[in-house]
Amino acid sequence: MRYQVEFRRYQRQFRQPLVTAHGVWRDRHGIILRLTEAAGRVGYGEIAPLDWFGTETLAQAWEFCQGLSGALHPSDLWTIPASLPACQFGFEAAALECAQLEESGDRLSVPTLTYSALLPTGAAALQAWQPLWQQGTRTFKWKIGVAPLQAELSGLTQLLQTLPQSAKLRLDANGGLSWNTACQWLDICADHAQIEFLEQPLPVDQLDAMLKLGDRYPTPLALDESVATLPQLEWCYQQGWRGIFVVKPAIAGSPTRLRQFCQQPHIDVVWSSVFETAIARHYIEHRLIPALIPGTAQLRPLGFGTRHWFTDATLDQPEPEQLWQTL
Ligand SMILES: [Mg+2]
Fold it and tell me: Would residue 143 show up in a list of annotated catalytic residues for this protein?
C-alpha cells in the first residue's frame, strides 16, 4: 500500500507583527499535505516549521516534500529524520487521520478546553485584553524581554492593575533575560498570585540556572524553547525538570512518541500553538490531547488563543477539504 501525496503552501499575515526576544515576525508560512490511500480515504496534515525554535526551515521542509515524488509508503513515515520535526508531525498526523489508526478514533471525548490569549507586546496589551475578556478569556500571555527592564516592570504593574483580579497572566521572556534580570522579574512576580508562570526566562543553554531559579522563587517556571522538540523534552526531563513544559506538538516531532513521553509521571504540560491552521489544530485538540487526557481532567488553558492575531479566517475553517480548496 502506498499513499498518493500532494502538497500546497500557505501564507498569512499577522494583524500586527509579533514582537518577541527573537525579533519581529510578520507572516506565517507553512505547508498543507494531503495523503490519499488506495481505498480513497484521505488524511490532511500540516507542516508549520519554526526555525528560530530549532526546527527545519520552510525551504528544507518543502525540499523534503518535493523529494517524495508524489508517493509515500507507510513505513517511510518512521524514517523522516529528527532534523525535520515539523515534517514528522505533519506526515504522521495525516497518516493517522487517513488510516484512522488511532484506537477509539472518533469516540474520544474531548475535555473541556479553555484558552490563554496572546496579548500584543508592550503597552498595547493594556487595552487589548478587554475584548478578549468579554469573549470569555480568563488567561492572558504577555511577551517580555524586548524593552528596557524598568519600562517593562512598570508596564507589568500597570497591566496587573488593569486586569480583573480573577484573570491569570503568563509572562514569556523567550529566553531574553539574564540571571539578574530574571531575579528582578521573579522578585516582583512573587507578590502577585495572578501570575500563573514565567516562561523561558533564560536561553536554551542555561537549563541549570533555570533549575536553580525554580528552586529559589515561588512563581512556577515553564520551559518552551528548551523543549521545542522531543529529544529536548526528553533531555530536560532527564536533567530533573519538573516545572511546566510548554509543548507545541506541531514542531515537537512524532505525535506517537510525544504521547509516550507525556504518559510518564509528573509531566505538567501547557499545550501550545505555533500559529498553525485549523488542520494541525484540529488534530492536536481532537486526537492528540483526548488520547492523553481523560475527558474529565482539568487542563491548563491551552496556548491556542491566537486566532485574533489574523484578520483572514480562511485557514481557521474546520472542514479540511474546504481549507485545501482555498490554497
Ligand atoms: Mg514561549
Answer: yes
- What distance in angstroms lies between residue 168's CA and the mean position of ligand 1's atoms? 16
pLDDT of residue 294: 65
Question: Comparing C-alpha atoms, which of 283, 289, 20, 17 is closest to residue 145?
Answer: 20
141 is catalytic: no
State the distance from the centre of ligand 1 to the C-alpha of 251, rounded, in angstroms.
Answer: 13
**Which pTM value belongs to this model?**
0.94
What's the CA-to-centroid distance between 174 and ligand 1, angstroms? 5
Pairing of strands 23-36, 3-20: antiparallel
- How far apart CA 154 and CA 47 sit, in angstroms, is 39
Residue type, 219: T
Q: Is residue 102 predicted with pLDDT exceeding 50?
A: no
Q: Number of C-alpha atoms within 13 angstroms, CB side, residue 185?
A: 32
Domains of the chain: 3-105 (3.30.390.10), 107-315 (3.20.20.120)
